[in-house]
Every structure is written in C-alpha cells, then in structure tokens.
C-alpha cells in the first residue's frame, strides 16, 4: 500500500440528479467519413451499458455507462460536483423509489459535464430521471509523498489502494489493460486542467487500432497514455506518462472516441504501465457478478 496524505483530505457532500438524455441543435451527427447518423448519446439511465462492457461496437455516440448525474442548481454547483467527485467515491440515491441504494463513481465526462455512477441493475430499474444522487467526495488533494514526480487526481484513496500499484524505487508500476499513443488522442487535448472531464481516444486509423489492440477497449478499463502529461492540463510531452480510466463509448465524430478521465500523471515518466486484462474498475471493485 502506497503512503498517501489521506489523513489530511476533506470528505465533503456533493449532490446532483439523474440527467436527461439530450440532443443539441440537431438529431444528426456527421461521421468522420461524411455520413449523417442519428444515435443515442449522453445522459439518462443506460440499462444495458455499464463499466466492464465494451467501449466500442455499440450503435451509439458518447454513451455514458450506468447513470449520468448533473447538478441543476447552476454552472458553479455543477463544476463543484465535477471537480470534487472522484472515481471510486460512494454514491447514494437520495430520493425516489431507489432511495438508500449505493453506487460508485466511475468517471467524468467533459463538455456535457456529467459525473458517471455505476449502480446494480435492480437499482437502476427503480430509478427515474431527476432522482437525487448524493456523493461523499474524497480524493481531491491526494498526494504520494514518496513520489513527488507523480501527480494524483480524480481518484478515491481506497480505489487507488485497490488497483495493485507496486513500488519500484522512485517509479510506481501500475496495471493497465492497454497502452495508447498520445498521437491518437483527440477532443479534450489542450484543456487547462484535468480535475474534471476527459479526452478521447481516436479509433479511426485501423492500423493503429490493430497495433495497440484497441478494438477490445472496455468501459472502466485503466489505460496508459504514452507521451502525455496532465500535470496542468493535457499536453503532448515525450517521455511523460498518464494513467486514466475509460468513461464513455466510442464516437463517429472526427476527433472523438472513447473518453479517458485522468487518474495519475508523471511528466518525467515515473510511472511504469504493466498489461493486466483485469485492470478494470468493474473487476477491481467487484461491481458485477458476471465478469
């Protein structure tokens, strides 16, 4: 177990509500090869797409697994929800027929600014759009004192300790399902902070998809992005390494693809990714009995 500053962190309540699916401006999306398509997208309660399921292959565009949550009190309150929530945080249904049921934060989706929460199927069957979701936010400010060249963000301390990270001198070894080259990263690149939102893995180059084995990406996978530094935003930097979690499905739109929320980053390459097919939040936290 890595030494952290968890005893100095603040645990704070944040709340949102199950967000309705939305279509912006038009029903159509224009695909990268020029086709107009109409597909399910962000928001709502997605009954048959959860962490552990494929991130590719759906007749969908940016679909968010499980339950999409937003604070409707205003942009400031929703930004607080998105910055304070951390992957692995406990979420509780606070209203409606499923009141009291527990779930887990699995990611954040930028642009639409949703926090994504996994609940068991029997809970989602009882939920409705507008139900309140309380999250006990813990993780913002988390540090690894023995690894000053590794920045931590968007991750609950208990989930961090559950991943199976190993110490190798001044380097940490982190299990991941895939390694992704930074040169195929798209939407979200250039953001000035990485404490909310995500950025997308473009899967339009079939040769790269085959070379890196990206056709079997799953929602909730931990992945390593080579030559990517997320210390103060998202930039290309040779030798840097970033670990993130896949948070939404693939997209047909140019520049887009499965989204990744940042968990760990090192501009000096002090993270060593190790391939492990079990490095998925659904398996690590035993969120599903069928995996």
Could you explain how this protein is built, in words?
By secondary structure, the chain is mainly beta. The protein has two domains: 6-137, Beta Barrel (Thrombin, subunit H); 151-284, tm1086 (SG structure) fold (3-layer Sandwich), CATH 2.102.30. 11% of the residues lie in helices and 32% in strands. It is built from five helices and 18 strands. It has helices at residues 75-84, 121-124, 157-162, 206-212, 281-284, and strands at 12-18, 29-30, 36-37, 45-46, 66-70, 90-93, 102-109, 114-118, 132-137, 151-152, 166-168, 171-176, 178-181, 199-200, 222-229, 235-248, 259-266, 271-275. It has a six-stranded antiparallel beta barrel with strand order 1-5-8-7-6-9. The two termini are 25 Å apart. The mean pLDDT is 97.
- Report the mean per-residue pLDDT as an integer: 97
CATH level-two architecture of the largest domain = 3-layer Sandwich
Category from helices, strands and their pairing: mainly beta
Q: Roughly what percent helix? A: 10-25%
Rg, alpha carbons: 18 Å
Instruction: Give the CA-CA distance, first to last residue.
Output: 25 Å
Q: How would you characterize the largest beta sheet?
A: 6 strands, antiparallel, barrel
CATH topology of the largest domain: tm1086 (SG structure) fold
């Amino acid at each position: 177990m890595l030494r952290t500053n968890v005893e100095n962190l603040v645990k704070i309540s944040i709340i949102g509500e199950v967000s309705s699916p939305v279509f912006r401006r038009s029903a159509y999306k224009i695909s990268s090869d020029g086709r107009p398509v109409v597909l399910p997208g962000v928001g709502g309660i997605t009954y048959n797409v959860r962490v552990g399921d494929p991130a590719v292959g759906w007749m969908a565009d940016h679909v968010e697994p499980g339950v999409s949550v937003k604070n409707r009190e205003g942009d400031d309150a929703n930004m607080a929800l998105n910055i304070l929530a951390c992957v692995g945080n406990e979420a509780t249904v606070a209203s409606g027929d499923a009141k009291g049921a527990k779930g887990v934060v699995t990611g954040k989706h930028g642009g639409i600014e949703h926090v994504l929460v996994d609940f068991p199927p029997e809970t989602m069957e009882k939920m409705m759009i507008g139900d309140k979701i309380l999250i006990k936010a813990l993780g913002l400010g988390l540090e690894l004192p023995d690894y000053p060249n590794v920045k931590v963000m968007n991750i609950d301390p208990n989930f961090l300790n559950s991943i199976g990270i190993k110490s190798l001198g001044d380097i940490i070894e982190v299990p991941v399902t895939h390694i992704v080259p930074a040169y195929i990263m798209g939407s979200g690149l250039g953001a000035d902070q990485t404490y909310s939102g995500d950025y997308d893995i473009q899967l339009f180059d079939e040769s790269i998809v085959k070379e890196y084995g990206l056709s079997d990406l799953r929602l909730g996978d931990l992945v390593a992005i080579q030559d990517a530094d997320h210390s103060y935003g998202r930039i290309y930097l040779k030798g840097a390494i970033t670990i993130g979690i896949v948070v939404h499905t693939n997209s047909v739109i140019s520049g887009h693809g499965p989204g990744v929320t940042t968990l760990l980053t090192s501009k000096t390459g002090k993270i060593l990714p190790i391939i492990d097919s079990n490095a998925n939040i659904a398996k690590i936290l035993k969120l599903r009995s069928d995996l």
